[in-house]
Structure formats: structure tokens, C-alpha cells
Amino acid sequence: MYSDRGRGRGRDRGRGRGQWRSPGGGENWGFRGGSSGPSFHCDSPVGADGSSSDGKSFSNRGRNSQPNSRGWFPSYPNSAVNIFCQKEPLEKKSLEDSMSSTGRILHDQSAPSCSSIESNHSDCSVASNSVNKGDSDTVSVPLGDGAKDGSMHLDLSHKLNIVPLENQNESLLSFQAGAKDPLSQEMDPNNVASAGDSGYSEQQAVVKLFDICLPKTGTIKLKPSLLAKNREKRNDAKRAADGMNGRILRPGMVLLKNYLSLPEQIQIIKLCRDIGLGPGGFYQPVYRDGGRMHLKMMSLGRSWDPDRGEYVEHRPVDGAKAPIFPSDFHPLVERAIKDSHALIERNLKSTSAEVILPSLSPNICVVNFYSESGRLGLHQDKDESQESLDRRLPVVSFSIGDAGEFLYGDQRDVEKAEKVFLESGDVLIFGGMSRHVFHGVSSVQPKTAPKALLDETNLRPGRLNLTFREY
Ligand SMILES: O=C(O)CCC(=O)C(=O)O
Ligand SMILES: [Fe+2]
User: Fold this and answer.
1) The whole model's pTM is what?
2) Residue 193 in this model has a pLDDT that exceeds 50
3) Residue 382 C-alpha to ligand 2 middle, in angstroms?
């Protein structure tokens, strides 16, 4: 998935942690490269709510420092934890050793976990999403393949035990290891390894559920302010004006703007919400040293271990196996690849699109939910199988909800990275020569989600991202 760590294949080892930092005032944004290897910045110790205690960052320039898996930047639940970036990989045994025989693990998902980040957007307007150096590198072509005609809407609900949105109540929802669900395989209560705020204290893992949709309260909605109305109008007008179009950002990297129809986005939210409330559903990855990632995630098809940075049978936090990968996603991913091929062929007047951007048959989907202060550091996605990586099979990313500022580049250096805004309905694909591009999400743009999407789903403020991969 997102790791820089090797699995005996001679890849980089070691994990550093970093965070986005503002470009001015002597602060850095994320990782910086250097001749003797990149240096990384750890999160400050933070309070229990994950907010930075002093707004500053510690810097660690350890030898061989690498970001942690996917460059996820944790915050620390208390100042006593080790804030150094460089850590040896966690052995499962030591995890188990560190647990008492009654390790109950309860993550505080409701607490805001992300320290706020400073962000300078003045130089990265939406128009700047023609990311490469010159416009010649950016192609904008209307797409035709029926993504918007409503004919390809997903009907995913038949597979699901959909919980009515009205019944949402985060405090009542928790999943205990050992519970069964058709979307997930049996969990192994003995395989409990997690680092909640209170450490390992009881035997059974309980991951507090995270509902990406807010409860429908039934209370009368206040009329939106004029300001809010105008903002919505502007956003809607922009979306309409943008239409659906495709851009080649670099060889093997294609952005399909406004690609998923509203009904498709709604279905995807409902599906993710439903799966996310079951076994193996959304949780906030926490490192065993207490560092937290700045998002909630789940992984479909295969579990993912943040400490090892690799796909595993049971996820360490609660022993859950991954929910199954819903085959309903296949047609959407296939359509996006097909349209990308058409775009490449039109643009390059070549028929070698499959060489430039190979097709994939996804069997893993990493689903991230970023709150308004969520983020993800620059990283490469390198945890898929060696064959998949060697074939440079693409990662296909769906963005839904609030827009996110997405950075990408050849190095783990935020200042050298290109920027593009990923808005609701956008699909980004990076494969072929771009398969190993460094990428991350520097910020979420609050209140940019389409109103109709929120009205229909009650999606929380924030951004949902799905990345499809073939293991
Ligand atoms: O949220 C995004 O746009 C990127 C997610 C990502 O890079 C990942 O999950 O590996
Ligand atoms: Fe990634």
C-alpha cells in the first residue's frame, strides 16, 4: 500500500515521521530531501485530543530516516512518548508481550486527532491544477464515456446490510473482535495488537466505530447564511463549468475531473459507510508508540499493518480480517482506465495507451476519511506485490466530499511537489512511469463538498478517498 519499507526485497527500511509545515516562518512542509538522504519531521507531542501542544515540530535527522508507511504523520497522545522518527519495525511478539492478559483497546475516535496545519493556498488556486511546468504538459479533453448519463449507476445496496442513516449513533456502535459479519471474515480475538490511548489493558480488542455519516437529527435545519449560499452557488457553477474532462498530468498519470456522477458518489459513500461500521471497518491507525495517523482508514480485500507497512492477514489493531473487496467497484475502475486510455490515445495519437498506463484488476481498496484537518504525508505506494509493482499497475483514486490539496512529485520534497485539487467526483490514476510518484494530501478544503451530496448522505465534513490497487 503506502510504504517505503521493504519486505526483503532490498527496499528502504526504517521509518521516519513527518508533518506538513508552513512554507514561511522557518517552518518546513513535510519531508525534505538532502544529499545524505531526506530528513523528516516528527509531530510535536500533543495532548489527548491529538492537537499540538506547542504548534511546533520536532525534527529528527536520523540516518536512513524514511517516512513511516505512506508518510502518515502521527500525533502523539502524550508528551511522554518517544517522538523520534526512527524506529525499528514492530515485531508482533513484542506487541503481544506489551499487552497484559486483559488488554481492552478502545480508540478514542471521537476526539479530534489531527493538529491543525497551516496552509498557504494563495499560490495554488484550482486553476493551477494544470500541474506540470508548462501547459504543454497538460491536456484537457472532454470525456464521453457515459460516466454522467446515469446509466452506470451502482446498485451496491443488495450486498449490504445497510443501516438506515437515521439510526446512526456513534456512541452506540462498537464492534468487538469475534463478531461475525458477511462482509468480513472471522476475527481472531487472540490476535490483538493495538495502541489506544490507554495502552493494552484488556484482552478483547474493541475498536470504536467511526461513522463517516452524521446522524440525521430530525431537527429543523437553519437556513444557510447568504455567505454559505453564495459559496455553494460558486462551487456548483464551477463544477458545471468544469464539466467532465481529462488531463494528463504526466506520463502514466491522468486526472479525470468531475468523473463520478452524483448518484455514483452517493452509492459509494453509502457502501463505505456500511462496510466501515462493520468488522474491519474504519479506525484511526495508531502506532504502537502512540503516534496517530491523521485520518481514519479501512482496507478492503486485504488488511494493512501501519507499523509494518504491509498488507497482512489480520490487522493488528483488533485482529480483524479485511472486509471483502466489493466487486461492484470493478466496472467503475474499468471505465476510468478505459477513458484514460482513450484520452492518452487521442492526445499522443498513439495506440500504446496500455503500455503507458497498464490496466489493472483491483483487489484491494484503501479507504481513507480525512476530517477537515486531516492530511497524509508524501509517500510512495509500494506495498503491493512485487509483480504488481514491476508491472507498474496503476493506483486508481476516487475523491468524494470536500476537496483535498494533493501534492505529487519525483522526490519527497513538498516544496518541489506539484499541486492539484482533487474535488468530489474526481478520479486520479497513476501507473506506468508514474507508479512510484511521491504523493500526499496537504490539506482538506472545508465546505467544498457538493451540497446535494451532503443532503443525500449526511457525509461528515471532510474528504473520502478510495484507492484501488491490484495486489
Ligand atoms: O487521499 C488521497 O488522495 C491519497 C491517498 C493515498 O495516497 C493513499 O491512501 O495511499
Ligand atoms: Fe498513496
Assistant:
1) 0.65
2) no
3) 9
What letter would DSSP give residue 224? P
Q: Answer yes or no: are the C-beta atoms of 276 and 366 closer than 8 Å.
A: no
Q: Is the pLDDT of residue 142 over 60?
A: no
Could you identify the atom of ligand 1 that is nearest to the CA of residue 297?
Answer: 9
Whole-number Å distance between alpha carbons of 74 and 268: 27
- Are the CB atoms for 402 and 443 separated by under 8 Å? no
Query: Which one is predicted more confidently, 16 or 208?
Result: 208
All 3 cell numbers of residue 184? Answer: 468480513
Residue 209 identity (one-letter amino acid) = L
Residue 320 C-alpha to ligand 2 middle, in angstroms? Answer: 22
Euclidean distance between CA atoms 467 and 471, whole angstroms: 12
Identity of the amino acid at 256: L
Domains of the chain: which residue ranges? 245-469
Is 426 annotated among the ligand-binding residues?
no
Q: Is 439 annotated as a binding residue?
A: yes
Confidence of residue 160 (pLDDT cuts 50, 70, 90): very low
Mean pLDDT over the full length of the chain:
67
Rounded to the nearest angstrom, the gap between the alpha carbon of residue 259 and the centroid of all alpha carbons in its chain is 19
What does the angle CA 469 – CA 294 – CA 5 come to, to the nearest 5 degrees? 50
Confidence of residue 6 (pLDDT cuts 50, 70, 90): very low
- The single residue listed with the C-alpha cell 510512495 is 380
Is 41 flagged in the annotation as binding? no
What does the angle CA 362 – CA 284 – CA 58 come to, to the nearest 5 degrees?
110
Neighbours of 130 (CB within 10 A): 18
Q: How far is the CA of 119 from the centre of ligand 1 (A)?
A: 18
Q: Whose CA is nearest to atom 1 of ligand 1?
A: 465
Q: Report the pLDDT value the prediction gives residue 207, as an integer from 0 to 100.
A: 85
User: Which among 168, 173, 127, 357 has a CA at the least distance from the CA of 254?
Assistant: 357
CA-based nearest residue to 66, from 309, 322, 323, 342: 309
410-443: per-residue pLDDT in tens? Answer: 999 999 999 999 999 999 999 999 999 999 999 9
pLDDT tier at 161, thresholds 50, 70, 90: very low
* Domain 245-469: homologous superfamily in CATH: Alpha-ketoglutarate-dependent dioxygenase AlkB-like (2.60.120.590)
Q: Which atom of ligand 1 is nearest to the CA of 422?
A: 3
Query: Among 24-28, 166-170, 292-296, 446-450, which is the least confidently predicted range?
Result: 24-28
Cα–Cα distance measured from residue 254 to residue 434, given in angstroms and rounded to the nearest whole number? 10
